[in-house]
Amino acid sequence: MEVSFPYGKRNIVIDIPEKNLIKVAKPKEKEAKNEEELIRKAVENPINAKKLEKLKGKIAIVVDDKTRPCPTKRILPYVLEKLKGEIKIIFATGTHTPVNEKEAEELLGKEIANQYEWLSHSQEARFVDFGITSFGTPLFFNAEFANADSKILIGDVEYHYFAGYGGGRKSVLPGVSAEKTIEKNHQRMFHGKARFGVLEGNPVHEDMEEAADIAGVDFCLNVVMNSKHEIVGAFAGNHKDVLRQGAKLVDEMYRVGVEQKADAAIIAADGYPHDINLYQAMKAIQTVIDVVKDNGTIILVAECKEGHGSEKFYNEMEKYESSEEIKKDLLKKFIMGKHKVYYMLKAVEKVKIYMVTNMDNEMVEHFRMEKISEDEILDRIYKRHGENAKIIASPKASTTLVSLAKNKFHAIV
Predict the structure, then answer these.
(1) CA separation (Å) from 101 to 24, 105, 232, 374?
(2) What domains sit in the chain, N to C, each tagged with a CATH number?
């Protein structure tokens, strides 16, 4: 069966014999409907929450920064038109670089950026102590958010490395939290259920959710998008209900079940821009790693025309021999970016990874993988696992989560 794998702005076609193929993982994306109707309907019918019109006083609206794909300027007007009060828009940057004026105009639209007061969360901000979660995380929130009479979160739901899904409570933690709060929460990423597409029993997610409850979030509006960045779902109300509804839709579109583990997976990181560098493209490995047998094979098709994409990622990879070694350091002090090195090492310890890529041999080997040509893909699999090797193909692995059909790690239980 001929399977097309995106590679940069072109495709690589691989003919995989039917006898080897377990499944081609294809997302079931929804087409965009009436965006305005979707958002209005959600806003006017909130799940287990007061309507926006009832929120008074100082109102804090937390929105995403430039590192998230949420189309804030397309959503925000439907919220603002319902509100009466002293409105302040806060960019949820966590530990990222604060948002500047030009970026604010791009994210909010010029009209909103000029008409409403906005500020970017920063680690230089004043923080308010909200106590401690049952997981032991000290809660320190940005004072501008903490002291508001009404708190609104706006974002989007998509898969996340260790929180299960982005969206909902993530606007609070890490969004408007102090570094010590974020570090303590993120150190739980080593838990077995802190992974893509898992909410139940995931301590990173549960801690974040508890933090949002303690903060006193009044209203949450999240959207779900397809690969064209069109809004295909909108959910509003209580942040917990909103996240679960969003996660359910994400799963319907992007979770693919298989009945057995594979000897090998041939995957692509969705092509450009997802495979512009290895730092971005390696996400694709994490979406299939659980359905490949120990000592199995993953072939990652990713152009990576900008190389590794992160000096920190490259340099930290050199320092560590094993995932256990870096885990010890991350438990002492969690540093964003360094977690990617942990995932990379964990992956190459479990399976052999080959890359079809524009990167040179030396760079690929630096990340403990081996560069091959597209013509060598099946040969390498057969050499390691025999002519009857069972293969999963996932051409859009950056956004498609492959899991065992009998897997209990579902978002909605």
Answers:
(1) 44, 6, 30, 45
(2) 2-27+255-404 (3.90.226.30), 35-237 (3.40.50.11440)
